[in-house]
Amino acid sequence: MEKRIIKAERRLLNGKHSVKENRKLGTVPGVLYGNKVGNIAISISEKDFRNLGGSQLIEIMLSGGSYPAMVREVQKHPISGRISHVDLQQVDIDKKVKTVLAVRTAGEPAVLHAGGVLHLGERELEVEAYPENLPAFLEADISTFVVGQKYTIADLQQAYPKIKIISDPDSLVASIAQARAEEITEIEVQPEIEEGAATERGAETEKENE
Predict the structure, then answer these.
(1) Is 139 exposed, middle or buried (0-12, 13-18, 19+ CB in 10 A)?
(2) Which domain does 110 fall in, by range?
(3) Is residue 147 part of a domain?
């Protein structure tokens, strides 16, 4: 996966005033930590964090050096939703790391328009891999699915051979089921009942007119 390069500046720890100034400038306060860097208070452009996957490998550029890192936590304002603080962990690209990835489905099976019902299973999974092999999320392609077909962790593992999914391979990611027969019958029969009722009402009207 392509690594993103993000420029950062060292941030002075002098209280709330510093945080407010960062926000006015469109930057986000954060911390970069790790065995090689210790703890460094930093500020980063807020726009650099847009559409950035939580597990994506990034390169933090600071005066004096650059560091491969991963986003470990993003805090947001409860009302505005704007990013208020980020935690970045410096990683060793030669060592595997564990993290949690979101699971998404891709594609829309034609059977969904013919009575099929999509059931979703696992939405987040713990994985282990070298940082450069970590995707932003895991994607399960269900575009060609038919009724009765299932997508399991084992299927997802085959799609991502460079990572190890730490979960039961038989666990369900997605499946397609048929709508319940009674629901289909109710939908089909209802118009006939209404038509019959209308006929009976018409006959009663004729008798009254006689």
Answers:
(1) middle
(2) 98-181
(3) yes
137: DSSP letter: S
What pLDDT, on the 0 to 100 scale, is given for residue 124?
94
Q: Does the pLDDT value for residue 54 go beyond 90? A: no
Tokens 């950062």 -> residue: 8
The verdict on residue 162 lying in a domain is yes
Look-up: residue for tokens 């027969």?
181
Looking at 35, 63, 91, which one is the last position of a domain? 91
173 phi/psi in degrees, rounded to 5: -100, -45
CATH number of the CATH domain containing 68: 2.40.240.10
Q: Six-digit token pair at 63? A: 């005066």
Counted domains in the chain: 2
Q: Do 104 and 169 fall into the same domain?
A: yes
- 121-124 CB contacts, 8 Å cutoff, 24+ apart: 121/171, 121/172, 121/173, 121/174, 121/175, 122/153, 122/167, 122/171, 122/172, 122/173, 124/100
Out of 63-72, 139-148, 184-193, give the one with best mean pLDDT: 139-148
* 30 SS3 class: strand
The residue-averaged pLDDT of 167-192 equals 71
pLDDT at 47: 83
Using DSSP, state whether 33 is helix, strand or coil: strand
- Domain-terminating residue out of 66, 91, 116: 91
Whether the per-residue pLDDT at 123 is higher than 90: the answer is yes
Yes or no: say if 67 and 52 are a contact pair by the CB < 8 Å rule: no
4 Cβ neighbours under 8 A, 6+ residues apart: 48, 52, 56, 57, 58, 59
194 domain residue, yes or no:
no
